[in-house]
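cron nightly-structures :: item 1 of 1
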Amino acid sequence: MIFRRATIQDVPQLVQMIANDKLGSLREDYKEPLPETYYEAFRNIDCDDNQELIVIEDTDASIIGTLQLSFIQYITYQGGVRAQIEAVRIREDRRGEGVGETAFKWAINRARERGAHLLQLTTDKKRPEALKFYEKLGFKASHEGMKLHF
């Protein structure tokens, strides 16, 4: 597998993978042509050194997954950096083959390379299988997360 930064040409495939999910299908708007909001988001992510939108390619250069890492500088932990992993998706026909585990191991190493002292994530409570997967990788439910949607 090859991990690389996404390009603007990858955006439709990435959005399609993110939307191909029981929760993603409720909040994403995958269609052709793809709404401009996705391209605007990509451009904002791409120009921010603290954001890495990653594509996972198979040996034949086909896209089989994606994830986004955000590096957050903060004043606590002696001015530490934490990494946040989001939008992890594996192409439906490749799930169950270990691609997700490989992606997380890559992300953990990348966060360490960037000097983060922890990697955090959130998962929807409607995804109990994801919670078990993350726990198997060593993640701990150490905090109660809360959101305020606008």
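cron nightly-structures :: done
The mean pLDDT is 95.
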